[in-house]
Amino acid sequence: MNFKFFTLICVLVLSHGCAYYVPATISPAVIIHSFYKDKIPGTVILAIDDNVKNASPDVKGTGYFCRWYKFPVTLDSSFTQSVKITNDAIFEKVVEQDNLSTQDPFLQMGGKGIIYVKLQRFNPNISFSQGLWSVHANASCDIVLDVTVKDANYKDLFTTTVEGSRSVDGDGGAFCGNGANLLSEAISLAMREAMERYGERLSNSEKIRTSFKQITIIERQIEK
Predict the structure, then answer these.
(1) Could you give all domains of the chain from N- to C-terminal order, each with its CATH number?
(2) How far is CA 1 from CA 4, 6, 133, 175, in A?
(3) Residues 20 and 180: beta-carbon distance below 8 Å
(4) Distance (Å, rounded) from C-alpha 131 to C-alpha 137?
(5) Which residues contact 149 (CB under 8 A, 6 or more apart)?
(6) 106 or 44: which carries more pLDDT confidence?
(7) Distance (Å, rounded) from C-alpha 214 to C-alpha 97?
(8) How far apart are CA 121 and CA 144, in angstroms?
(9) Which contiguous run of DSSP H or E holds residue 83?
(10) How many whole angstroms separate alpha carbon 70 and alpha carbon 128?
(11) Whether residue 74 has pLDDT greater than 80
(12) 3-class DSSP state for residue 74?
């Protein structure tokens, strides 16, 4: 079966093109450049916005040879795990909580603060071009996160926006199938870059460290 015939089958039989599902990978920060050797003390509550559950685009290949192919992406679990593992490297204890909208459950869990993470932008793309002997692919991804840290009084303590943007070149593979792996790699690298910037900003925040330490000291004095 040649390339043109396979593409024709995708167009005629599936109407919307053939789909290559993009493998999801967990990509936490690998290196966090911090001025501090110790973790931030106490328990932090991690709440990730529900919009990440809707970040499952069907990326469509561009370029004459692979424009009929789709690359469905599912970000949900890989994203949440990447954020959780990165926070584990920064804070003494991290507790995940869905839809934390009131202060009561926060206090019941003994939290020193709350981290809200919202996916502002998730933009994966892949393009193909015909090389001398094979199809060439370029995969890219932009990820932008809005981060808000609240203190024990439920007031904003720290806000930041972090971004990861990476691209990967490679062989598109037979019938453009390797595009899914290249796109997965680009998403993973962009996520890791965003997580490392996230980790550096939170770990080096004097406001966060001071707030958490003050609460820890007060609690220890009460216990005595």
Answers:
(1) 17-23+31-223 (3.40.50)
(2) 8, 7, 17, 10
(3) yes
(4) 10
(5) 113, 114, 115, 116, 156, 157, 158, 159, 202, 205, 208
(6) 44
(7) 24
(8) 5
(9) helix 76-88
(10) 12
(11) yes
(12) coil
* Paired tokens of 32: 């966090």
Question: How far apart are the C-alpha atoms of 204 and 199, rounded to whole Å?
Answer: 8
C-alpha gyration radius of the chain: 22
Q: Of 190, 191, 146, which is closest to residue 47 (Cα–Cα)?
A: 146
Residue 218's contacts (CB-CB under 8 Å, 6 or more residues apart) are none
CA distance 24 to 137: 19
Distance CA 196, CA 32 (A): 6
- Residue 54, pLDDT score: 80
CA dist., res. 145 & res. 213, Å (int): 26
Instruction: Tokens 């001071």: give the residue.
Output: 210
The amino acid at 123: N
Sheet holding 91-96, edge to edge: 91-96, 40-48, 111-130, 135-150, 156-171
Beta strands in 74-183 (DSSP E): 91-96, 111-130, 135-150, 156-171
Tell me which residue has tokens 């216990």. 223
Distance of alpha carbon 103 from the chain centroid: 26
Q: What share of the chain in percent tops pLDDT 70?
A: 82
Tokens coding 140: 């890219």
DSSP assignment, residue 62?
Answer: B
